[in-house]
Every structure is written in structure tokens, then in C-alpha cells.
Amino acid sequence: MFEKFTDRARQVVILSQNEARTLGHYSIDTEHILLGLLREGGGLAAQVLTSLGLSLEDVRLRVKETVGHGRPATAEHLPFAPAAHAVLQGSNEESVRRGHDRIGTEHILLALLRDRETVAARVLVACGADPGHAARAMEELVRQYYPAP
Known about the structure:
mainly alpha; Double Clp-N motif
């Protein structure tokens, strides 16, 4: 699946793993993907998230408050939790649905925003961002970035 990811989207996955490891978590979950999207900083998803007033520091603090901080992870490679795996698969679906041949940060964010029961969704709400508004803003930016033929 990762072969379809843009360089920025691949970077998000790497940064998500780094965030999980830094927080002492033993798997990558939706909250780590959210942090990875913000930390990447240059993709369409980061543009939307920062336009909603979110910062990496604030979101990281909310993640710590929500799920805690564990012990330093020792595993070289952290596995994806089921919800995070679903987000990555969903990003492919978001790309295919739009007829795009690559998976970008925008597709990851759209997939992340589908499930309102994840830790990432709860963190967004705790930070004052409405996941529905975020999804609409992302959709609008995707329409601008990928104009219809």
C-alpha cells in the first residue's frame, strides 16, 4: 500500500511512529497519525489542521492527557493498531474514490476524520476543532488542489 503514498504521506507514517515511540506507546494509533500530519507541516492536511488553530504542541498535550505517557518503547518497528490500520486503508479508498493515483496527506486526514469515535477525533474536539468542519475544509481544499477536468 505504501507504494502509492506521496513522499509527504510516507513522512507522516514515519513521524507517526516517532510520535508513538516518544510517547512511550507500543503501537501507532489514530492520535499518532494526527500528530504525524501536524508534524509533517507542509501537506494539505497540515494546512487544514493549522487553519483550525491546531498546533503540534497543543495536540500532543491533549494526546498525553487522553491516553497518557508510557515507558520508552524498545521495539524497532511499532505495529499499527487496528484503528490506525483502518485509517491507512481508508486513505487509499479516499484516493480511489476521487480518481487520484497517489495517496497524499489529504487522503489520510479524510480517512482519519471518518470515524468520530477514535482517540484522534476526541483529541480534535478537546482542542476545540470540530471533526465535521475539518472534513469539510479538507474536501474544499482537495477540490481546489485537484480541479475537475
